[in-house]
Amino acid sequence: MNQKLKNGDMMSNPQRGDIFKPGDTVERSGIYRVVHDPMHNQSHEVTCVYGKKFPPCNHCGNHPRFELIRGAQHIEHNEFFK
Fold first, then answer.
1. pLDDT (0 to 100) of residue 1
2. Alpha-carbon distance 63 to 4, whole Å?
3. 58 lies in a domain?
4. Which domain holds residue 38?
5. Looking at the predicted structure, is the pLDDT value of residue 12 above 80?
6. Which of the given ranges, 5-9, 13-17, 26-30, has the highest pLDDT on average?
7. Residue 66: is its pLDDT beyond 80?
8. Is residue 30 predicted with pLDDT exceeding 90?
9. Hey, is 46 helix, strand or coil?
């Protein structure tokens, strides 16, 4: 699903369960489950912020996948806190 921004640009609106890899741009701030190489680490949750890149793991490199658990608006992008 795409959403039109005020300047007319289009941005995608990732949904719960969407999967991303290191190097992808975070298109929705929120809580993501990180799944590593199982020989390295168990899955865990992290907060990722809109506009940043999903990072590689210091141990298993580009193996991790990031699954959106719950999207949230970053406070800096909220109209009441700008």
1. 40
2. 32
3. yes
4. 17-77
5. no
6. 26-30
7. yes
8. yes
9. strand
Are 62 and 21 spatial neighbours (Cβ–Cβ below 8 Å)?
yes
Residue 82 inside a domain? The answer is no
Q: Which residues pair with 34 in a beta bridge?
A: 44, 66
- Rounded to an integer, what distance in angstroms lies between the CA atom of residue 29 and that of residue 81? 16
Rounded to whole angstroms, the maximal C-alpha distance in the chain is 45
pLDDT the model gives residue 21? 97
Joined tokens for residue 20:
């991303």
- Tell me how crowded residue 62 is: count the other CB atoms within 10 A of its CB: 12
SS3 per-residue string spanning 49-69: CCCCECCCECCCECCCEEEEE
Q: Dig out the tokens for 9 from the structure.
A: 């640009």
- With a pLDDT cut of 70, the percent of the chain lying above it is 85
Tokens of residue 8, six digits: 């007319």
In a domain, 27, yes or no: yes
